[in-house]
Amino acid sequence: MRKGELDEILDFKPRSHLEAAAQLDAFISWARLTLVKGIDNQWLHAGLQWDMYSWHKGGIKGCSFTAYMTRQGNSAANARYMQQPFMDFAKALVVHHNIFRRKSSVDGMLRALRLLEVALLEHTGSVDVTKLSSAMCDTVAANLKLNFCEGDTAYLAGSILERIVKLMADKKILVTPFKWKSPIRYKSRISLKEQRENHDKKLPSRESILALGELFNNDLSSPLDIVTVSACAFLLSQPSRIGELADVEHDCVLFKEDDAGNQRMFLRWYAEKGFGAVTKPVVKGMQPAVERALRLLAPITDEARSYAGWLEDHPDEFPPHKDVPLKGGDDPLSYEEACAALKIKGIRI
After folding, report:
1. Is residue 100 a contact partner of residue 52, using CB atoms and an 8 Å limit?
2. What is the DSSP letter of 185?
3. Is residue 111 predicted with pLDDT exceeding 80?
4. Gap between the Cα atoms of 314 and 160, Å rounded
5. Which among 272, 227, 274, 280 is positioned nearest to 253, based on CA atoms?
6. Which letter does DSSP use for residue 44 in this model?
7. Mean pLDDT over all residues of the chain?
8. What share of the chain is helix, strand, coil (3-state, %, to 5)?
9. pLDDT (mean) for 311-334
10. pTM
C-alpha cells in the first residue's frame, strides 16, 4: 500500500457507536430548543445563552460548568471548564432537570457530572459520554464517598448519577447499555433511642410551656409579649412552620363540619414548601386560645396592615410618614432630608 493511500484510511466505527452519537446529538439539539422556549416563557432571564460557561445569572442558581477541583470564586480567566462535547451533554441534562422537569437545585447534578468527566478521562482517555460503563460509575461513587463524607451529599449525588444512567439508556445514548445502582447508602438512619433523644432536645422544657401559659392569661400590654405568646398559641393549635405565621390573614377563622358532623374551627393558612393556600383544623381544646390570640394581635397590627395595603395600591410612590420632606417627587434632597425620608440617622464623615 502506497503512502498516499494510508492518508485516506478512515477509522471504522460500529453501527452502535454511530447510533449512540446520533442520539446524543438529538438530545443536545432538543435541549437547545427547550432552553429557548424556557426563556420565551419567562422561566429564565432573556440574556441566557447556550454557549455561556455559567447560567447562574441567567436564572439557574449556582449553575456553572466548571471542571472538577476548580475552586469557587476563581476568575473567569483562571477557571477550568468541562471539555467539549461533555459540556454540551451536561447542559442538556441541566435543561432536562430544571426546565423540562421543573426542579430547582443543580448542585447534586453538577457534582456528579464533574466527577463523571474525570472518570471518563481516566478510563477511556476521552470525554465521549456514549462510552460510559458501570466501572466508570463505580469510580464516581468511590470518589463521592471519599470527597464528600459529611452528611448525605455523596448519597444525593450518587442517586442523581443513577438517574442519569437510566435516562441515557432510555434515550439510547449508550454504546453498550447497562443498569447501575448507586452503592452509596443514606447515612441519616439512626436508632430509635437516638430519635427519641433528638426529639426531646427539640422540645421546650415543661417550665417554659407553663411560663408561656401564665403570660398568655395575663393582661398583656407589650407588643413583643403579645406576638410571642400568640405565635406559640397558633403553633400549638395546629403544627405548622414558624415562617408561615407571617402570612396569616386578618379574617382567617372559619367553621366547618368535621368527619363526625360537628362544627369545628379551621384556619385559612398559606403553607410553605409549595402546598399553597389550605384550611387547617385547630386542635380540639385550643379554640379559646386561638380566639384570644386573634383579639390580641388585631389592634397592634392594624397600622402595619394599613401601611401594607397602601404600598400595594401605590407601588410607584414613596411611602409617606411624618419625616418625609415636603418636596416634589423629582426635587433634589439634601443629605439630611434623604436620611429623614429613609428614617435613618445620618453620619457626617
Report:
1. no
2. P
3. yes
4. 46
5. 280
6. S
7. 84
8. 50, 5, 40
9. 87
10. 0.52
* pLDDT of 73: 47
Separation of alpha carbons 158 and 142, rounded Å: 10
- Asked whether residue 124 carries a pLDDT value surpassing 50, the answer given is yes
Alpha-carbon distance of 253 to 228, in angstroms, equals: 20
Q: Which residue has the cell 478510563?
A: 123
Secondary structure class of 181 (helix, strand, coil): coil
Question: What is the identity of the amino acid at 149?
Answer: C
Pairing of strands 253-257, 276-281: unpaired
d(CA 87, CA 24): 12
Per-residue DSSP letters for 200-266? HHHSPPHHHHHHHHHHHHS----HHHHHHHHHHHHHHHS---GGGGGG--TT-EEEEE-TTS-EEEE
CA distance 34 to 199: 46
Chain length of the chain: 349
Nearest to 89 by CA among 173, 163, 156, 179: 173
Cell of 111: 457534582
According to DSSP, residue 210 is labeled: H
- C-alpha 82/C-alpha 106 separation (Å) is 16
* 257 DSSP β-pair partners: 263
Distances (CA, A) of 30 to 49, 52, 54, 100, 129: 15, 17, 20, 11, 17
What sign does the CA torsion over 314, 319, 320, 326 have?
negative
Amino acid letter, residue 294: L
